[in-house]
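REVIEWER CHECKLIST
Item 1: Sequence provided? yes
Item 2: Single chain? yes
Item 3: Sequence as submitted:
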Amino acid sequence: MSTDRMKTDAGPADSLPPADPDLRASGLRLAYDNRLVVDGIDLAVPPGRITAVVGANACGKSTLLRALARLLAPRDGAVHLDGRALHSIPTRELAQRLGILPQSPVAPEGLTVIDLVNRGRSPHQTWWRQWSKADEQAVQQALTATGMTDLADRPVDELSGGQRQRAWIAMAVAQGTPVLLLDEPTTYLDLAHQIDVLDLITDLNRRENRTVVMVLHDLNQACRYADHVVAMKNGRIAAEGTPAEVITARTVADVFDLDCRITLDPVSGTPMVIPMGRHHQGAPLQPMAQAAD
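Item 4: Structure as written out by the authors:
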C-alpha cells in the first residue's frame, strides 16, 4: 500500500449505510440513440437477496443493469434508491450506497491487487478525510473474504482469469456498498472458477446481507445461486419470481426459443434445465414435482 496517504481516525463517513436498501425502477425505457432497448420495465429489487437477470442476447439485461447503476440515463421513467431518484443523489454518496462490476473490466498495466482494492475506498474519502483506519480494515477484510491476501502485491494483469475476477470483486467488497450490481461476473471463466466466483458472491450476500443483482447466462447457475430471477425478452420482463416460478419449460421456450425439460437439480433441489436439440429429442423427464419422490 502506498505510504503517501494521510491516515486519519474513522469519522462519521465510516458508519454503516442503512440496511435493506430499496432499489426499484418504474416505467423504465432505455435507448441508445434512437434504438429502444428496454421498454417500460417496473422492477423492485428484493433487499438482502440475490437477483439474477437472465434472457437471450440483446434482450436488454446489461442495459437494465447500467440504468440501475446510473450509467445510462432513462429515456422515460426513473430508478429510485431508498425513495430518491438516482439522478438526484450526489455521485460520492451514490458510490457509497451502490457498486457495480462491469463485464470484463480492465485494470491499468502494472496495477497491483492491493492498489486496485484500495480504489474501492475512494468514495469514502474527501479532502478533509483521507485514508483512515476504517479504510485499512475494509481493504484487509475484502482481501480476506475473496482469498486474495497472498496475491495482494501481484500485478492484476499477471493473474489468471479467476484471480482477476476475484480481485475486482474484492475492490467492490472494499467499497462497502449495500447494493452490488454484477454484469456477467462469470464470463470467460472456466467452470471451476465460475463456481468459485458465485460461491464468493453468495458468501457476501449471506454473511453481510448485501443486495446483489447479477446478469447471468447459465440458467442452472441462476437457479442454484439466486433467490429471485428476472427473465427478460425484447426489453421487457417476461417472468419474475423464485427460480421454481420462473424457470419452467414454457418460459424457457418463450424467452430463449428453446425446447427443454425441467427436472430437479440433485445437488441443490432447484430447477435444472435440460435443453433439447434436433439431435437429442429424448423421452420427457418426470415433472419437477414428481422428480423429488
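Item 5: Key structural point noted by reviewer: Confidence is low (pLDDT under 50) at residues 1-18.
Item 6: Recommendation: ____
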